[in-house]
Design goal:
This protein has 171 residues and is mainly alpha-helical. The chain contains 3 helices and no strands.
């Protein structure tokens, strides 16, 4: 029997998605619910605060242009007022958005550090295991994510230490 695609199909690598043992589903979107919930809620809160600040800036700038700060409709044309208001709005709204961007960036760095730190420690542990060493217990900082995973890895390391101790005592 001949192969339908010719003899060269055996040499071609299989598509990567064929090796998956799971299917992407909507319920799989939330992998680590506490982490994703906190990150999403903080970002939403920051955007709400930013939107409120922008609304306040727009309102106060228009109010200032119309009722205060020396504008007089008798000597200044409405086009001039709107030009000044437009310029002030662009500057003030840009400042609010810039501050929001800095806050979100700082939050992202600190938040993701709580994720990347444990992942780095897990990787170091796995590298030592692959070299044949039994690494020390994984200790996470307060507030780090994946504490349950660290506990499970530590249980496994304890079993390995017990097995190594019993095999060395029998020898």
């Amino acid at each position: 029997m001949t192969e339908p695609h010719g003899p060269s199909t055996a040499a071609q690598p299989a598509p990567q998605h064929a090796n998956r043992t799971y299917k992407r589903r909507a319920r799989n979107i939330l992998i680590h619910k506490p982490m994703q919930r906190e990150f999403s809620l903080v970002l939403i809160a920051l955007l709400i605060v930013s939107s409120l600040a922008i609304g306040f800036v727009i309102h106060s700038t228009i109010r200032e242009a119309v009722f205060g700060s020396g504008y007089r409709f008798g000597k200044i044309s409405p086009a001039e007022i709107l030009s000044d208001v437009s310029y002030l709005l662009i500057i003030r709204v840009s400042c609010v958005l810039f501050v929001t961007l800095i806050i979100i960036g700082l939050f992202g760095v600190f938040f993701l550090h709580r994720v990347a730190g444990p992942v780095y420690r897990f990787r170091q542990t796995f590298l030592k295991l692959n070299k044949g060493e039994i690494p020390p217990t994984i200790h996470l900082r307060e507030g780090d994510f994946f504490e349950e995973t660290a506990q499970e890895i530590n249980k496994y390391l304890e079993k390995m230490r017990g097995a190594a101790a019993s095999s060395s005592s029998q020898a």
